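Sequence decides. Consider this:

===
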Amino acid sequence: MHIEKNVCESLIGTLLNIPGKTKDGENARLDMVAMGIRESLKPVLEEGKRTFLPAACYTLSRSEKKQFCSTLAGVKVPTGYSSNIKSLVQMKDLKLINLKSHDCHTLMQQLLPVAIRGVLPKEVRNTIIRLCYFFNSICSKIIDPSKLQQLQDEVVVTLCLLEKYFPPAFFDVMVHLTVHLPREIKFCGPVWLRWMYSMERYMKILKGYVRNRHRPEGCVIECYIAEEAVEFCSEYLANARTIGVPKAIEERIESRSGFKVIPIDYKTLCEAHYYILQNTIVVDPYMSKNEKWLQAEHKRSFSSWFKRKIETELARPKNTISQQIRWLAHEPKREVLSYSGYGIGGYYYNTSDHDSRSTTQNSGVMVEAESLHMSTAKDKNPIYANMLYYGVIEDIWELNYTQFKIPVFRCKWVDNKGGVKVDENGFTLVDLNKEGDPSDQFIFASQAKQVFYVNDPNRGRWFVVLTKKPKLYDRGDVCDNIEETPSFSRGLPESDDIDNEDVAYVREDCEGIYVEEDTTSRKKRKRT
């Protein structure tokens, strides 16, 4: 994790030319002159007391820096995903500040490849994306040992590409250590079993125990013993909360907020009721008897037919109708329970209206569903296949069937025909303005998987889809608080330019850098 942090700081500092963080400068250019490489990047001493550094292929223009920082400043992530990224961006100076270890982890895993879309030459951009993809791969919870050699070969190629574009001063020991990470995984196991995020969090807790700064060790020992004693006693008390899990996070696992009772129109209620019947296992035998119906007619009349069918079977003296089918046959009540926030399955969701007033984004959802595919309108042999659908939650309802309630999400789905695509780098892009079928807008709350959307800086109306893993807490003895960051891309960018020697080291479309001469006088030490 510290290798990832140092590489991230060097990379961002060089791209944004942050003083004290950048690996580029007058000395770095003079080193290349002494080595006899990249003569076109040598510093030029102008009249006065400043030096001009030509724009290198990794140099961002001021407009590109604004685009880079604006993209990160506009990112809204789900609750518990990371810190507020906007607070780390300084738009005035166009730089990132106060980056913690987990902030660098979040940037390298998902956000940095999105922020550099549309800036830098294509070869340099793909090289940085390859580096981020490598860190994302080695941080997976499950790693196939047979693919470690492939990861080793890929990181070697990536470092060779970095050497082609970045100055030699960029390659300190931390960048070099990345080549040894696959071998370390081979001998020591997955990275997430050995990183120090939990230790750093616990060190913050221990620092909070200190009350007397003259005796910090004694304060830590006394508070630790007191906490252990209370934890031991709480095991013999009913309804006692575990000390280790923060209360706010524990309560948000299955929490609900913004509760109110609202009436809905009958047509919308029938659509939600039909979706529940269509996706409930106990109703499948009744659905299979109506496959010969046209799909539209089946959707319109199945609920009423199902109700009459169950009433007929209940009239028999000996029937095997379960209580669940009996209450499902009756339509739910017209008044539904509406929420603005709902926690289920390790995710915490909000409606899009709530997200518009919040600093977080919890309304993005993804669901994998089976759909009918036809090659043409006259195709007589359609097939069923699974597809991913992306959308935004508009309403969170609980339908009341008297004996039980079923939570559903009413979503605005993106049309898969023209609103979803995958670009050359493997990023999934969606156009949230292209709405899908408005008659099919409900899903079970348990079916949803949370995603969040980041505005593509290269395409105004398109958004990059980034996924989030659920945060699950076991209420027993084990608490799994380690998340795996999903990949931001479906594939690794190609490296066809590894043998290409015609590299444009100087950017003609970007302004250079002026370095002022340091005129600070130093006082001579007096000899005694």
In short: The chain is about 35% helix and 15% strand. The first strand starts at residue 44 and ends at 45.
